[in-house]
Amino acid sequence: MSGANTFGRLFCVTTFGESHGPAIGCVIDGCPPGLAIAPEDFRTDLDRRATGRSRFTSQRREADEIEILSGVYQGRTTGTPIALLIRNTDARSKDYGDIAQSFRPGHADYTYWHKYGIRDPRGGGRSSARETTMRVAAGVIAKRWLAERHGIAVQGWMSGIGPYTPDTVDRAVVEDNPLFWPDAAQLPEIEAYLDGLRKSGDSVGARLSVVADHVPVGLGEPIYGKLDADIAAALMSINAVKSVEIGAGNAVAGLRGSENRDELSHEGFLSNHAGGILGGISSGQQIVAHAAIKPTSSILVPGQSLNSAGEAVEIVTKGRHDPCVGIRAVPIVEAMLALVLIDHVLRHRAQCGDVPAQTPQVPNSPAIPSP
Q1: What is the DSSP string of 7-62?
Q2: 246-277 in b/e burial notation, b at 16+ Cβ within 10 A?
Q3: CB within 10 Å: which end of the chain, N or C, has fewer?
Q4: Phi-psi region of 345 (alpha: psi -120 to 50; beta: other; left: phi over 0)
Q5: What strands lie across the sheet with 287-293, from one edge to the other?
Q6: How far apart are the first and last CA of the chain?
Q7: What is the pLDDT of residues 181-223, one digit of tens each?
Q8: How far is residue 328 from each of residues 36, 45, 288, measured CA to CA in Å?
């Protein structure tokens, strides 16, 4: 068996490394040649995901300097495997000494130990969100190729945190605040709420939304390669994600067929409850997905657990942790959606070549362009 650490079929990303190991990295196989890429191109998205950038995230401060080891020559991808590496520079393993033999509730400690008979207790090892840094790095390449070659744009934001949901969604303000929140008027109240959580040593969950604009008609397959199924699997693979919705998601359970179906007209689709995907294949509408992330389990509030000897213990997780891990997950959901889309564009091109768009075509639903 292979692929447990690899994502994608044609655009394949394999990540490696642990939270407190010497480095983390990834190998990207299948990237088309000729794409301009340089180490500085990763800076913006890595900073968006990074810890220590505001008081609302863990204060671990990693440099996150990308080293491009292969697959790029004179600033352009060569079509050969791209190897990326980031050195860990601010790991504090001593923070985990007191719980090396105990299982933190809500974490993967217990399951890892039973599965493998050994585990790395330092920051969760392989199960740490530190691994997602390399997904974001791979997503930088995917987003650039999708934008330059096909005009596809991906953006995410926070659409829920604790008891709060946005009154309005203004995508223009998402990058102007450390919470990636789309309603500027609510920010002072939400920041005060998070400050209270941080001081109490507790945490809260979050909901994230991510969309892709200008996606062509025809990506995805009817059965086992459904675009929505692959998006769901990609988002569920992110640490702490416990549910995924496509389009209207859970709300469709309360709708009638006459309300839910996305009717068509000469002006285009009249709604988008399906999230831009019909029968597993993109419709040319905006792709819409949401992910719910559980509260951070590493908190200062004492909790009951067991140690490796089966004895009852009380756990207090010390160290540097997020009051809401969802804040840093926005660039991660963007990266995973972009990785699904680039893989499906390449898969469609491999199977169907330059199949022309069929008519009649719904307005504003672009066909897949030529390579």
Answers
A1: E-SSSEEEEEE-TTSSEEEEEEESPPTT-B--GGGGHHHHHHH-SSSSTTS-----
A2: bbbbeeeeeeeeeebebeeeeeebeebbbbbb
A3: N
A4: alpha
A5: 153-161, 206-213, 287-293, 241-246
A6: 33
A7: 999 999 999 999 999 988 888 899 999 999 999 999 999 999 9
A8: 27, 10, 19
